[in-house]
Design goal:
The chain is of the alpha+beta class. The chain is about 30% helix and about 25% strand. The chain has one domain: RutC-like (60s Ribosomal Protein L30, Chain: A). The protein has a 5-stranded mixed sheet with strand order 1-2-5-3-4, with helices on one face. It comes from Arcanobacterium bovis.
């Protein structure tokens, strides 16, 4: 069970982050859940702001992607009936606010993908996009979207 794996790793799912605008954090359609973009919020605040490759290092951004995916899992879990109802990770989209010459977006988004692999094993293998952008909401360095398959 994923809840047991989280416990083994010493990870607690955070509370679902309240939307910053007019949208819902996650939506279930059939046996699929898709999340809105999730920022690496910790207790309602961004631990770091700025562009990766300038004010934020790639390693810091990778750590933030890990936080953002936990927020995405919390959002998905909230409409899936709990974390143990998530059967498979389908797709991850990672947005990285990048300095003009930064090209390491895939390495940053690995922070999310690697954690999903640790938690879900083979069911954590997913398709993915890692996209460099000029700016994200609240000057966040990363934002992550998640699509999962849930048990009936």
């Amino acid at each position: 069970m994923i809840s047991e794996k989280l416990s083994e790793l010493g990870i607690e799912l955070p509370q679902v982050v309240a939307p910053l605008a007019a949208y819902t954090p996650a939506q279930k359609i059939g046996n699929t859940v898709r999340t809105s973009g999730q920022l690496p919020m910790v207790e309602g605040k961004l631990p770091l702001t700025g562009k990766v490759g300038a004010e934020v290092t790639p390693q810091q951004a990778k750590d933030l992607a890990r936080i953002a995916i936990l927020n995405a899992l919390a959002a998905a879990s909230s409409v899936a009936g709990g974390i143990d109802h998530i059967e498979k990770i389908v797709h991850v989209t990672g947005f990285v606010a990048s300095a003009p010459d930064f090209t390491g977006q895939p390495g940053v988004v690995n922070g999310a993908s690697e954690l999903l692999g640790d938690l879900f094993g083979n069911d954590g293998v997913h398709t993915r996009s890692a996209i460099g952008v000029s700016v994200l909401p609240l000057d966040a360095p990363v934002e992550i979207e998640l699509t999962v398959l849930v048990k009936d």
